[in-house]
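Hi X.,

You mentioned you wanted examples for the new student's onboarding notes, showing what a folding record looks like when two proteins sit in one file. Here is a clean example. The first protein comes first, with its sequence line followed by its structure tokens.
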Amino acid sequence: MRRLLCLLLLVLALPATAGALLDSRPSSTLGSINNSADFLPVREAFQLSLVESTPQSIKLRFVATEGYYLYRHRFQFRTDPADVSLGAAQLPKGEQKHDEYFGDVEVYHGVLDVELPRTDQRAFTLAVTYQGCADKGLCYPPETERLNIDGSGDASTAITWSWRELALFFLAGIGLTFTPCVLPMLPILSGVVLRGQVGGMRGFNLSLAYVLPMAICFALLGALMGMFGAQLNLQARLQSAWVLVPFAMFFALFALAMFGVFELKLPHALSSRLDRIAGRTEGGSLWGAAVLGVVSSLLVSPCVSAPLAGALLYISASGDALGGGLKLFMLGLGMGAPLVLVGTGGAAWLPKSGPWLVYVKNAIGVLLLGLAIGLLSRVLPGQVTLLLIGLLAGGVGLFMGALEFVYKPPRKRLGQLLGMFLLFYALACWYGAFSGQTDPLNPIGQPRIVAGNEQPRDVSNWQTISTATELDRALADAKSFGTPLLLDWYADWCISCKVIEHKVLNDAKVVERLKGYRLIRFDMTASNTEQRALLDRYKLFGPPALMLFGKDGIEHADVRVIGEINAADFAERVGKANDRF
């Protein structure tokens, strides 16, 4: 039963995960009520730092938080004084992104390194302008940051790690300890390292002497990946089919190993040599424990290679050698923490090895297959990806006994019922794929909206303004006449604004419920200082945003929309506001 529940939880999470990977467009159903907390301030979403300043060049690093991206064509670099000259910015190739309103653009996720050739050795101020968006459907106005560049060529280093990340890596290391080929090693290693001397300060010292060198080996690997990963620009290279497909096959291969199709281990010649080194090492001494720790880091690496590869890929995107080393050091400490616990006399607290480890292996295998499908979704058509998701869900459903119509005890019947649910979901995915659908969260799709439900918006009903004075006047006029008001924050460079303009505010039901409203569009395409001050006044990060004001001129803040929203949900918000009039 534990196996069934583990597999069920993982597979139920796969459609949501795959949905995010399938489509780079923001969700049309995002718009939760007053969802300001869903978005970060611009300088938290995009972190700029000066990595290196030499007489020959200036190296900048942008770190886009997960779920955010930067536009290549929106970068600008200016100097103050203006007569200080810089060469053309050297930007790597970005990820291709197609939008039905803006066409083909290049964007950057993760870490981006920009190099500016330098010909003038004077000190100056570098003004860096950039613009990005959130995958959830919010576009930030162009942002400008100023960096002081001195004439000496001193360098500064960017730090991209936090204590929270280190804690997460430590917890991940503890989780890796309970994998099928690591947990059984604990009593064996405790016998070799501790020589039966469990407990007390000596046991603690010996176990720590074993764990620290193992963690240091992982730290060296993380530092190397952090140092060279950013130079390889893996984040952009991973968008190529030549990289994504091998990585997907890599995860699928490890999934087969988790299912017991074959045993994953080091080549016999290498493993036997390491075994001989471990056998000749004197147990019970600090030096011997340290040598065993180094050897063990090599022995257990194949067993945890898939999670370790994911960690290395994450570290490579940070471009921070120190942070990468610290993160994998904490991963190694987490893997060794149970041994320290055993060494100090806490063996009774650890779960015993048994059949439940097989359930863990199978659950990890399902998760790895889900990751493989997620990677392939970036290069495969959406219908093919939906077929693969259905295949995975159907396989798990059959494994849970969906079609085994024989007598079973009550617990297994519940597992069979859940397996049948997954099988029905798989059939829905296959039907949707052959019907042209691509969304795993809605595989069958929605009935096609008839053409009459969408009508061109009457532009004459909308007043477009662009200054704070005009906005204040419009709000005051609406209040004086007792007229409710809709304020639409818009910009030409905002993709999601176009979606709302064409697919939400045009909807017949929305138009009907907005009758009697004064319709104001605030155009902040220029994104000047005055307009940005208005964003601060209303606690907005950028467009799109929809604000409803009552007849008394007070905003109904609980129905404010930030980011994209679909027509049905927005019509519901307007109806909720109308009920208060």
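Then the second protein repeats the pattern, sequence line and then tokens:
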Amino acid sequence: MKSAVNGIRKRLTTRTFWLILLSAAALSMAGAGKSPYSRQNKMSYATDATLNFPGASGLVVAITSASISNSTITVNYTLADSSGLPLDSTGATTPGTVSVSFVAAYIPNNGEQYTAYTTSTSTGTAGTFTNAGKDTGGVTTALGAGKYTYVFGTKVPATYDPTATHTIGMYASRSLTSFGIPNDYGSTTFSFVPNGAKVTHVRDLIETSSCDTCHDQLSFHGGSRRQVALCIMCHQPQSSDPTTGNTVDFKVMIHKLHLGSQLPSVLAGGSYKIGTTDFSKIIYPATSSASDAEATSGFRCTTCHSQTTGAAQAALYKTNPTRAACGSCHDNVNFATGVNHPGGFQADDTQCAMCHVPQGENPFDASVVGAHWVPEDSTPGSIYPLLGGVQIKLNSVTNGVAGKAPTINFTLQDGSGNPLPYSAMASLTFVMAGPTTDYGNTNFGVSTTPGYVTESGSATTVTCSAAGACSYTFTHAIPANATGSFAISYYGSRTAEVLFSGTTSQQTVTESPFNNVIYFSVDGSAVLNRRTVVQVSNCNNCHVSLELHGGSRRNTDLCVMCHNPANTDFTQRPSATIVAQRTLPNLGIDFNLLVHRIHSGVNLPPLGASYTVIGFQGSVNDFTTVLYPAMTPQGNPTSLSNCEMCHVNSSEQALPLGLNATTNNQAYINPAPAITAACTGCHADEATSSHALANTTSLGEACTVCHSSTTVNGITPPYAVSTVHALY
């Protein structure tokens, strides 16, 4: 058999050989075990034969040792698939070739950042620069069983320091697309001290897991660079962008591109670019809890500089402030002259920590934590518990039957759980909607609130006991013909609290309670809660504290009550601050359409679509500049394929989710059936709407025939939602 196979291989290309073997395996191994992959991995939907074929998918790279002798760097490494099977990088004995690159750098014993041995010269409009990069001219030797040795082409200087920490960076890609399997990528680093001593001097401020909370899988430069530990080996003070001349030092570049639109230089009319990519419109989603993502009242540093990921130098951002790091965001400060710096000019970094201590006694001071403190975060239990806090617990609904005006019974407390008098509230509005099977079609007799009703409480309509037990009775009744379950929630705020009154740190802060929702039956049937499609905890992976409409709407279970399929921006559009917007058709603001379109952002114009909502007081909110941070495996942002970043309970796969058609006067299809409305939120091009329309008849939508993720008789529809959204 072995000789026969060798004979075949002499007559066939490597690719053809493996295609034949994969096909043969598909015939001989049908019915093998379940896929070990997650729904986000395309291999999860491969045949059992492909899944069980040796070396079919995955790339795990590891450096086992490194050394320097006579100025020559030698690295030993391994390549394996996801099951641990050794890989042949040439693709001769396992499917797919593997391309591997290496970087070598060291951290001077009296320094903090890397200096690369491996460099290259780049020339652009800004000049010629010598930047850190991959090694060239090296020699790879295969040792068998997935083991390899690489000898660098770059030589270290004879005067190199053998007592300094040295690090080898490795990144690789495995080509599998010719076999109908996605390419795989891997990267790793390995640190050592050439004289054999233990590594004690490191550069480890941020872990990749912090980045992945928003970026899904941090991937750059084609997808093979996936670790912060690797990024910082090249992105250090040694390297600059030849197009703009801007440094690509990690601490400077990352601060600037995340602050983007709020950089002082950008607000003054400038821009921030690396190469031809303009980051000047980036809005960091976690800057402030006061609903305005562009607010400059605070910046949550620990979103990236997490203190819980195990980074060895997690606290360094606050214990060792530098001109480069601080000046990256505060880029209107000139440390050489002292302009815009209360501390005057600074010739070096030695005095920074004298004023900018890690954390002061109070927020809003010159300490690193205090200077970046978000005022709304000063709640009971925080490191600066300056605010009173407010929370509402919904206890019961009485008289909540069809044809009656219900009473909501609740407990009003401060942030510590003490009774809070109603007089402490600046506002409190109650919301009622139903039925929970799908909001939007119930008429409460209020023409400006399709499918729901809002009522403002007051000192005369809300009654509270000294213990904080309160109640409010709606003036609007539940419709007499109502059936099923309804929901009641609320939004509002405490009277604004002034912190540090009369000082230069004075802050006026408005606190809003989390919007709990209570469900109740209006006809004696079993109570049915509204389906859970997304969870606020998922939103807060990026937004930290989701707070909209002035900070008072904080729960997606409330959002969907008003942002229902029947609602549009019709109440605000006539007063749009841009006159041309006033005469445009009303725009749908159903939650699934709203959230899909907002997060699609920059993806919309290439599809011939846009999304501009007219909000409170006629504000014009154009979301086509939003850059969703999730990345494709190849390292491109704005990837909307990983539905699970927002969705829970596999809700994106349940077709249909809703029952009611979505009203959107700017859509190709209006009203749009439930599945069409959800899918065309992201797939906003005309062709997709045409496809949906062609597959909808008087009997309804036919989407589930091809797009359902439900397996019938062992067969999953060919274009199931789960399959087409798989990334890896």
